Structure formats: C-alpha cells, structure tokens
Amino acid sequence: MKEAKREVVIRFAGDSGDGIQLAGTKFTEASAFAGNDFSTFPDYPAEIRAPAGTIAGVSAFQIRIADHDIHTPGDQPEVLVVMNPAALKKNLLDLAKGGIIIANTYEFTPRNLKKAGFDSNPLEDGSLEGYRVIAVDITSMTREALKDLPLDTRSKDRCKNFFALGICYWMFTRPLEPTINWIRKKFANRPEIAEANVKALKSGYNFADISEIFDARYEIRGATDLEPGEYRVVNGNHSLAMGLIAACEKAGVSLCYCSYPITPASDILHFLASMKNYGVITFQAEDEIAAVCAAIGASYAGSMGVCGTSGPGLALKMEAIGLAVMAELPLIVIDVQRAGPSTGMPTKMEQSDLLQALFGRNGEAPVVVIAPSSPSNAFDIAYKAVEIALRYMVPVIILSDGYLANNAEPWLIPREDTLPDIKVETFEGNGKFYPYIRDEKTLARPRVIPGTPGLEHRIGGLEKEDITGNISYDPLNHEKMVRLRAEKVERVQDIIPPIEVDGEDEGDLLVLGWGSSEGAIIGGVNMVRREGYTVSRAHLNYLNPFPPNLKELLSRFKRVLIPENNRGQLSLLIKGNFNANVVTYSKVQGKPFFRMEIYRKLKELLNEECAG
Amino acid sequence: MKSAQVKWKEYASDQEVRWCPGCGDYAILKAVQQAFADLGLSKEKVVIVSGIGCSSRFPYYMATYGFHTIHGRAPAIATGVKLANPELSVWVITGDGDGLSIGGNHLLHACRRNVDLKVILFNNRIYGLTKGQYSPTSVVGTKSKSSPFGSIDSPINPILFALSAGASFVARSVDIFQKHLKSMLVEAGRHKGLAFIEVYQNCIIFNDGTFSDVTSKEGKRKRVLWLEDDYPLTFDEDDSKALTFDSDLMDLKVTDDKDKALVWNSDGRYDIFAYKLAQIDNPTAFGIFRKICRPTYEELVREQIFALQKRKGGKPTLSELFNSGERWRVLGDGVIKKLVR
Ligand code: SF4
Predict the structure, then answer these.
(1) At B233, is the pLDDT very low, low, confident or very high (cuts 50, 70, 90)?
(2) Is B128's C-beta closer than 6 angstroms to any atom of ligand 1?
(3) ipTM of this predicted complex?
(4) pTM attached to this predicted model
(5) Is A231–B59 a contact, with Cβ atoms under 8 angstroms apart?
(6) CATH class of the structural domain B8-291
(7) Three-class SS of residue B340?
(8) What is the largest CA-CA distance in chain A?
(9) Minimal CA–CA distance to A41: which of A6, A16, A7, A72?
(10) pLDDT, tens digit, for every residue of A397-435?
C-alpha cells in the first residue's frame, strides 16, 4: 500500500565519516528524476575533525520534496535517519511530533550512548514515545549483504549509507537507476567498490520491501507546476559564481576574483578556482584588505574585479570600497552574511550586515546594494551586479547569507543566447580627455583602460574636481561631487525591475521581505491564504537604490510587516525613507525563518485587525 | 621604436609639484623621468600606483596612468593591475610608513609572489605628511612630535625585509646620488619580477640630515660602498679598505688588505653576504643586493589558465558551464521527466 503525500521533509544525520552529505545528494537527484520539486540544506559540523561519535561531529542533510513548487527545505523534518546516538541527540528536538526515526542500532552501544550524553538507550527506554521508531541494524545488515565480496570490513562499512538510502528509496518510492548509474560512473576504476555500493543500496531497498517493520510507504508525485525545460541543482554560492562567469563573458570583460578564505564564502573561491579554463583569474590574497584592493586594481586595469567575504571581512574592506566610490570604479563585493558581531557564529546565517553595507564607510560613500532571494535568483543577481558595476562605474555589494549559500534547489538552466547583452564599451575617444566627464544618462565617468594611448590620467582617493578630475578642496565642488556620486547610485533605478506584488495591489497588510527569507515568507503567506485570509507580499532584491515604485506600493497598504534576521535594519530604512506603518518581525538565532513562524505572525496580525 | 623618442621632460604632467622646497622627492621624480626615457617606456603603458604619504603624491606629477590609492595598500592594488593586464609597466611608490608600517603585509606578499612590480620605497625615516612623527625606520632615540623623549622602537631594515620576503631584485640608492639612482631605476625597469629599491630620501622639514653619514662630502668619500658585479668590495679614500669574509666569525669584516676583498655578484651566489651587507652601516652599501630570475606571479597565473584550457580542449562555452553536473528535463505537464545525457 502506498500512501500519497503532497510533500515530506527528511533529515539524514550521522557522523562526519558516515557519508551523510553524499546520501543526501543522491536522494536529491533521485527526487529530481522522480519529478518532484525540492529544496535542500546541508548542516556540516563546525569543527573540522571532531571525535567520532560525538555531537560536535554530527553532519546532517535535510531535504524537502513535494508534488508542487516549493521554496524552502522545510521547517521540521518528519523523518529522521540517524546513523548513531549523537545524531539522534542533536536532531531529535527538531523532529516533528509523531515523526519517524530510522536508527542504526549497531552504533547504539553503551560507549556511543555515553559519548552522545544518553544515560540509557533511548531506543529501548521509552523516551521516544510519540515518535515512530524503526530500529534497524544497518551496519550488520550491510556486512551480511556484502559478505561474498572481496573487501575488508572497513570498506564494507563505508557502504552503510547506501543501505540506509535504499531503505529510504523504498519508503518514498524513489527510482534506483540514477543512483546506480552514478555509482558505476564514479567508481569506474574500482569496480569492486561500485559493486559493493550498488549491492548495499539494493539490499536496503529489498530489506524494506520484505520486512514487516516498514508498515508505511509513501508516494510523492511529480510536481505539475514547474516550468518545462532543463534543470540542474544549484546552491546559492555556486549560482552566484556562475552568474559572475556568465555576466563577464557577456560583458566582454575578464573575471578577476580576489578573496581571502572566510566561512561561509570560501566555497565561491573554490568553485571559481576550478573554473580557470573559462579564463577566470582567482587570487587568494594575504588578507581581506588586499583582496578588495586587488579587485579594485583589476577593475582599474580593465577586468571585472570581484571579491567574496563575510561580515568581518566586509568591515575590513570598507576603506577600500570608499576608494572605489571616490575613484568611480566598477567593483563587486559579495558578503555571505553570518551571525555576528565579531567572529559570532561563522556557520550560522544572519541578515545583519544590511546597514553595514549601506553606511559602513567613512564620508558620504553610497554604493549599490542588492540581495538574492533564492539559489536560482542568485545567478540573476550576480549577472545584474556586473552590468550595474560596469555601466555606472560604481561598487556593488551583494548580500547573500550562510543559509542561501548552502540551500540548493532545482535551477532552470538558462539558454546562453537568451542572456541579456550587457556589453559596456570602453572609452577610447580622441581630442582633449577629461577623466570625470559624465555620461548624461548614467552619470558614469568614462571607463578608460590603462594602455590606451592619449588618455593617460590620474585618479585617486582625494576629492576630485568635477570633469577634470584634478585634486580639489573647493567647498562647493565637494558638495557637488558628494551629490553626484549619490545621484549616480540613485540612477541605477533606471535599469532595475519594479517591485512586484504577489496578491492584491492594495489592502490592510503587506509582507515585505528582503534576501533569503523569500521562501519562508511565500510558505507562510500561502498557509494563511489557504485559511481564507487576504494578505499581499512583496520582496526586495534591490536595497540601494530601492525599486522606483516602492514608495507608491507602500502607500497602498495600511500596515507593512517586515520579517528580517536582524533587529530591524530594513524596517529602519523603510521608516526613515517612507511614510509607512511598519511592524518588524525580528529573528536573530542564526537560523532562517520557518514558514510556520511567518504563518503564526501573520495570523496574529490579521486577527488583531479583525478584532480591532 | 617610436616610444623611445619620449624625452624625460615629457613624462612630467601639467600639475604643479607641491613638495616642500628642498625635499628629496624632487630629485627622485627627476631620476624616475630620466630612467623612463632611458627605458623607452611609452606613457600609456605605465601605471604608477601609490599609497598615502608625501611621496605618494608622485603619480599626479607624471604624465602616465596613475592611481593614488589608500594608506599602505598600493602593492595590493598594483597586484590586481598586473593580474588583469600583465602588459603594463607597473610602478609602486611608497614610503617607510606606507610600505613598512601600515602596508608591511602587502609589501611582504608582493615580494614573495614575485609580482612584476617596481617598488620604490622613499625612506626618510619620518612621517612627513602627518607633520613629523617617528616612523618604523627611525633610528632609536629619534626625537619627534610623538616621541619627545626619543623613540624606543627598534627600526626595521628595508633591504633586509625585501631580501627575506623573497624579492627577486633588491637595490638601494640615495636621492642626491642622481646618476646612481637613475641607473638603479633603469636596472629595476629591465628586471622581470618584483624589483624593490630603497631610496634614502631627505625630509628637509622633519628629519633633515638623517642620512648625512653617507650623503655628506666626507661620508660619501669614506663610508659609501658601491656594489658592482665582478668588482671587489672596497671603499674609503682610494679604496683603501675592503670587506672580506672572516670564516671564524662567519661574518663580513673590514680589512686594509685589498687583496682579500670579496668580489661582489648580485646573481644570488653570494646571497648570504647580501643579508650581511644589508645589516652593516660602516660602510653602507649602495647598488644591487640581489638580482635573480624566477617566474613572475602573473605568468604562473596565466600558465595555469592556458594549461587547463589546452588540456580541456579550449575555453568552454557558457552552455557547457550551465550543463555541467546531473540534469533532467521537465516536459509539458511536468509529470514526466527524463535524465538528460
Ligand atoms: S614634509 Fe618632508 S618629505 Fe614631506 S614634502 Fe616636506 S620635505 Fe618632503
């Protein structure tokens, strides 16, 4: 009997050495081929080599699969697969009431229980009442299944993640072929390993099929509301990186990515460092300041200089970003935000660098600030950043975060020939040349590449006289230049899309989000709508400048709810800039919003309205 | 070559030079212009990057491309310039405070990476632009506004720093030794890789005469040791004194026996002596301490790119980028999907 389910959230958890991330990735692919929409989130241990069996060493991977378009990896897992006691201890609190626990009993030894902080075996002492526990000796069964293969026990035990995966494939009716094909390809040079993994996968599947302890089997049909086309998986970091490569190719500039390793942004550096065949230059600088400076130097010399960092690194880069503002050079700084202040919680997300990005420099130093709202959207945002930086000769800060960086979802692969043309000509002119003469429309100064004869000029961090670019301490000129630099950023409005409303165009309540919270907000809004409430939703990707129609949009709603993972930074900007009645919903726990939280907050506000 | 026709005065921009009258910077500016003319550099191919300080105003006075950046960061910015366009001749102008205090880290890394930059460090042993505080090269006991009772910090030795950091060309000269300075700049310009030149520069306002032990008439005659390849290390009146190697002390030693003089070579074979020469001040050595050949950073960066492209059959298209990894196709009503191969 298969029970149809619209969606399910599963979390795999085990020791770092248990191959959890791989199992999760394969489950994801199988789900893609089953036609589901999905969203995933890995949770790596913060410590690199935590002792085996300890809570610090637990690695997890969460996936939500659905028969419809979804936007987050899910609030709470309903199924928890744990390979040892520590994995259970660490993840149990997140499991939904009545959820299923599949536990590898082999590892529930007195020693491991103690390491995880259990006084007695939770699989036996009744403490898991209220959950459905499926206890399976995964390790022994894997060994048994592989007993005829010429491998040592260690190598056999490495296959236990595939045995566990086989169980899950049966439970959720996943196809085995994509994973089997992958294993055969991956271990083409080591057929005995390939054979062992395939066998473990199939054995797990068959075991679940014939064993009576699995009394339920679920089917999640293919999603019918996905746009036709070719898809692949991307996470936020890789999506940004590909957006940069694509945009630079289309803009006709080389990409020079300068970065200093920092969690959770390093992955962008890793990805781009392996893309050298695309002509990408990567430079691992000696520090955060050198990284942004090298990027500025590269932009000055005709490349697109980009650097990636996180909050502490952004703080270090600020003086140099101010130089790029003054010298009016293209520059992109990606801030993959994490929980602060100071070192904070490096692996945890936050949206608390918004004001730093906008105002963290000395002097009046406006830059463009934009934020992707989903892994797929990150590609478009990076692409747009390159266009803005080159066309307006201005620094652009992209605010991603630690959640978006690792969250993965299906991505509708763009067609190369449909990507917008963003070529910006360099200036080669003749006659008398002025480095700070401006384009009438964009106010950008000419982009001149050193090496061009006849256009030799000097720029720098000292205040410039308008047009000539000569050093100037003239008071009125300074004021004029301050205004010009600000207006240039404002004019970026000309090439950004207006903000769109999901739902009614006017009304009592608008939920306004920014950045990575979009998925959770969509989820929460849909939940209240299903209960018959009316609420509208809009999401900001462009934070400086705001979309041109934002003011008018806000004026059409009585109240604006702003959920953000900080203490109300966007709220402050909205209140300061517009006459809006703002309700801030702040969450600063190193975790993104859950759909349920947005839902509850909306209900609270909507019911107030009814009562009032 | 057309570019060879640029006269040294043509390297001067139309901006009025604003260093204090009598400042050593004027002489260095002129030497650089003359060296550029000798090197036959075309103006558009030169980028001068500076940090902050008196000397860092330098780019404004040159008719080349110029970038006056922020305090200490010129080597990092110049590295980016070179990464993006290795064809440019990139010169970094820095000072003792800019290059060895706030920007010490960047200079260190530019040296070890062997980025093809020409770094001219104007050493005046003082902070001039901020009106006279002791600097990281000030000798112990320097009385300045921020050290009224004498500085207590042990000074950094710029030549020793550059040698240790792995600069492939290291030289020293003096603002007023015009001919020598120009020749050092020309040598640096011809060198492929990071060239570091320390120039003793007199700040007439805040630290006048700090180098008089070598720049005074007598000092120059008695104390200056010229490093020239294949010439013996002799100095003082009529080259009456010589440097020799004392194998008991494992050190350089002054001797009156000219026959025992070491014969200098900067190609790395006497690198150990370069470190010793950097540390003695009587005599004080001027000239090239090291000039060795090793691949430049930007060369290696490009080599990796080309090697990978060659191995993978050229630069891939964007479609290849997007289509890497497992893909699947959503068809029509969305229910049926297939693996894309
Ligand atoms: S303060 Fe000293 S270094 Fe600066 S310009 Fe004047 S003399 Fe030259």
Answers:
(1) very high
(2) yes
(3) 0.97
(4) 0.96
(5) no
(6) alpha beta
(7) strand
(8) 88
(9) A72
(10) 999 999 999 999 999 999 999 999 999 889 987 778 999
Residue B200 CB contacts under 8 Å (≥ 6 apart), including other chains:
B24, B123, B124, B172, B173, B174, B175, B211, B214, B215
- pLDDT for A214: 85
Phi, psi of A563 (to 5 degrees): -85, 130
* Residue A428 pLDDT: 84
- Phi and psi torsions of B57, nearest 5°: -70, -10
What rounded mean pLDDT belongs to chain A? 96
Contact list, A245 vs chain B (CB under 8 Å): 318, 321
**CB–CB contact A415 B319 (8 Å):** yes
Comparing A430 with A199, the larger pLDDT belongs to: A199
Instruction: Report whether pLDDT(B341) > 90.
Output: no
Choose from A300, A427, A457, A473 for mutation: most chain B CBs within 10 A.
A300
pLDDT of res. B3: 46
For the CA of B24, the nearest atom of ligand 1: 8
What span, in angstroms and rounded, lies between the C-alpha atoms of A124 and B256? 93
Cross-chain residue pair B83–A297, CB shorter than 8 Å? yes
For A262-310, what is each residue's pLDDT tens digit?
Answer: 999 999 999 999 999 999 999 999 999 999 999 999 999 999 999 999 9
Output the pLDDT for position A224: 84
pLDDT tens readout for residues A48-70: 778 999 999 999 999 999 999 99
pLDDT band at A612 (very low <50, low <70, confident <90, very high): low
Q: In 3D, which of A420, A456, A408 has the Cα closest to residue A435?
A: A456
Of chain B residues 91-150, which have a CB less than 8 A from chain A? Answer: 105-106, 108-109
Angle at B104 between CA B99 and CA B106, to 5 degrees: 95
* Token output for B5: 């026709």
Answer whether B88 contacts ligand 1 (Cβ < 6 A): no
Average pLDDT over residues A506-534: 97
In whole angstroms, give the CA distance from residue B241 to residue A448.
55
3-state secondary structure of A16: helix
* CA atoms of A356 and A318, how far apart (whole Å): 9
Which residues in chain A are closer than 8 Å to B47, comparing Cβ atoms?
301, 450
User: To the nearest 10°, the Cα dihedral for A557, A562, A568, A571?
Assistant: -30
Handedness of CA A103, A108, A112, A114 (dihedral sign): positive
Q: Which residues of A365-403 are buried (b: 16+ CB within 10 A; e: fewer)?
A: bbbbbbbbbbbbbbbbbbbbbbbbbbbbbbbbbbbbbbb
Coarse DSSP helix, strand, coil percentages of chain B, rounded to the nearest 5 percent: 40, 25, 40
Nearest alpha carbon to residue B139 among B157, B121, B160: B157
Ligand 1 nearest atom to the CA of residue B131, by list position: 1
Is B242's C-beta closer than 6 angstroms to any atom of ligand 1? no
- Pairing assessment for the beta strands A217-219 and A2-4 based on DSSP bridges: parallel
Strands A408-412 and A395-401: unpaired
Chain B contact probe: residue of A458, A459, A470 with most B CBs at under 10 A? A458
Structure tokens at A190: 């080591």
Closest CA relative to residue A546, chosen from A514, A505, A580, A510 = A514
| Spatial CA neighbour of B47 closest among B82, B98, B1, B22 | B82
Angle at A319 between CA A313 and CA A322, to 5 degrees: 115
Three-class SS state of A447: coil
Domain boundaries, chain B: 8-291, 297-339
Closest-lying ligand 1 atom to the alpha carbon of residue B25: 8
